[in-house]
Fold this sequence. Notes:
Layout: E1 2-7, H1 10-26, E2 36-41, H2 52-58, E3 65-66, H3 74-92, E4 96-100, H4 104-115, E5 120-123, H5 135-146, E6 149-152, H6 155-163, E7 170-172, H7 176-191, H8 194-197, E8 206-209, H9 213-216, H10 219-235, E9 239-242, H11 245-253, H12 257-261, E10 266-269, H13 274-283, E11 286-289, H14 292-300, E12 305-307, H15 315-319, E13 323-325, H16 330-339, H17 354-364
Amino acid sequence: MRIVTVIGARPQFIKAALVSAAIVRSKSNPAREAIDEVIVHTGQHYDENMSNVFFAELGTPHPKHNLGVGSASHGAMTGKMLIALEEVLLQEAPDWVLIYGDTNSTLAGALAAAKLHIPVCHVEAGLRSFDKRMPEELNRIVADHVSRLLACPTKHAVENLRKEGIVRGVHHVGDVMYDAALVFGRIAESTSKVLATSRLQSKSFYLATVHRAENTDVPRRLEGILAALAELAREACPVVLPLHPRTRACVKRYGYERLLAANPAILAIEPVSFLDMILLEKHAKLVLTDSGGVQKEAYFHGVPCITLRDETEWVETLAAGWNRLAGAIPSQILQAVAESGPGADIAEYGDGNASGKIVELLLAGDG
């Protein structure tokens, strides 16, 4: 069996590493069909710290194809990916195309495969924010509706698909990111030096990430978030802020450097490697983020989270009390921080073997 895996953004590198490892493990059973995996990197994230480092740190096989698409508008980026992916799929002739999450790479992989009548497996299927202004929401809806195999991280995701009439090929496998948290959390503790180099003490700092277009591309929202972080840094403890390239560019474009420079307790640093990020998450007092993946990782590591959005796909974290929605209004963010704390366990994220279950479904041809 041949599988083409399409990745292009930071969370996809992590998830693909776990599934790739499960594929390798499956080859140890001579009675099972062997899977030949071909990895395609679209180039959507091209920054060294946010892309190539994953292949070095996680041991993921290097891509056979790197499309080098880079940054562009949503339409231009997706169009370039479609053209290049069609050529790759015609060349590789896979039995399945494996896609992850909700990025432009996800959408391009889904459409390119579907138009060539190649079955699609969508990992992290069924998530919905119910906000179609978000490009990620449109990407995941289209990807789900053209996929034959839908690997859902939660029961809520399964129910979302049922409401849209998608019931065939739907499976609740658990969350691949929980697999990653278990595996790489241990590795990060023994290898990452980020706490020492940044002179940080465990549970004595906040960790913040901001990258979604709904925040970075709307000046008043970005200003509100940065103002709240500045207030937290003044009143409480340092705020570590790894700046996504898009966010750094917008901070400069809108003239918001003053909000960062005015308070030395905001540590605006370059994007960190995955293992460094894991260690920062594990030892943070609190996480503030607009990233879906980081919301969950905070829970996996037992750290309360404030989501800098008006909605979240990970409603389980809200229901369990680990996560609070705060949007981009400073007063709401500060209130959410004041009210935050530990919550209840969330069983449906699985047992740490979601990756293995996905491989079993692919081998069974379950669609």
